[in-house]
Write a structure and sequence with these properties.
Order of helices and strands of chain A: EHEEHEEEE
CATH architecture of chain A: Roll
Distance between the termini of chain A: 34 Å
Number of domains of chain A: 1
Distance between the termini of chain B: 29 Å
Radius of gyration of chain A: 12 Å
Radius of gyration of chain B: 16 Å
Largest sheet of chain A: 5 strands, mixed
Helix content of chain A: 10-25%
Largest interface: A-B, 14 and 27 residues
CATH topology of chain A: Ubiquitin-like (UB roll)
Strand content of chain A: 25-35%
Shape of chain A: globular
Number of strands of chain B: 8
Oligomer: heterodimer
Number of strands of chain A: 7
Shape of chain B: elongated
Order of helices and strands of chain B: EHEEEHEEHEE
Largest sheet of chain B: 8 strands, mixed
CATH topology of chain B: Aldehyde Oxidoreductase, domain 3
Structural class of chain B: alpha+beta
Strand content of chain B: 35-45%
Helix content of chain B: 25-40%
Chain lengths: ~80, ~140
């Protein structure tokens, strides 16, 4: 299972703060395509964090069971 | 891991208390404080009345730890504290409190600026700006 956390306007679009996907393995590109087809996330600016580290959306990355993914809209702290 | 996030606005009592706690640290000769206050920005014909902050807390705490470590490496500091609100903070209330202490003055100015910039740029905190017609928009740091 892969956990995906949503924040800000992406959590609004997904109508949830987090979900678990029933995949054992999935590439980052496949995940982003899947989420775009579900929630049209392509229209938002966002960064991706894998296990709490920012990665490039273009990075060739195989996600596996127990990975924690987060879609992070622009930061607004301070 | 130091506690950074505080539910709701940061009160003036909390800030005063933080200052008082440093009176027993006699190697300190200079403090510098940055306070960020929620501003009533105009959004077309509406005004911002509050910001609701959320964060990816696990990652934010890791990032804040790295930022603290890097500040201690870059500057000659005795101690530093960063506090940020979560939840609703109304206009006029304080949402970030950065408190830097050192033997002497010069380092604390530079370190404070560095810390605030690092928090804005690298810490996953999100702000929902509530407008006076109850609609909202998502804040983006410029």
């Amino acid at each position: 299972m892969i956990t995906v956390n949503y924040f800000g306007n992406i959590a609004e679009a997904a109508q949830s703060d987090s979900e678990t996907l029933e995949y054992n393995t999935l590439s980052l590109a496949e995940l982003l395509d899947l989420l775009d087809s579900k929630y049209a996330i392509g229209k938002f600016p966002f960064q991706v964090a894998v296990n709490r580290k920012i990665v490039s959306k273009q990075q060739i990355l195989s996600l596996s069971d127990s990975d924690e993914i987060a879609l992070l809209p622009p930061f607004a702290g301070g | 891991m130091k506690k950074v996030f505080i539910e709701g606005a940061i009160s003036s009592e909390f800030i005063a208390d933080s200052i008082a706690k440093h009176q027993s640290k006699h190697s300190i000769g200079a403090h510098n404080i940055f306070l960020g206050q929620v501003r009533a920005d105009q959004v077309e014909d509406q005004k911002v009345v509050a910001i609701e902050y959320t964060a990816y807390e696990e990652m934010a705490n890791e990032k804040l730890h790295e930022i603290r470590e890097s500040a201690f490496e870059k500057f000659d500091l005795t101690c530093l504290h960063i506090y940020h609100s979560l939840g609703t903070v109304k206009v006029g209330e304080i949402c970030i409190f950065v408190f830097v202490s050192s033997k002497r003055r010069k380092q604390v100015y530079e370190a404070t600026e560095y810390l605030v910039n690092q928090v804005k740029e690298h810490v996953p905190i999100f702000g929902k700006e509530i407008l006076d017609n109850a609609e909202h928009q998502w804040k983006v740091n410029s």
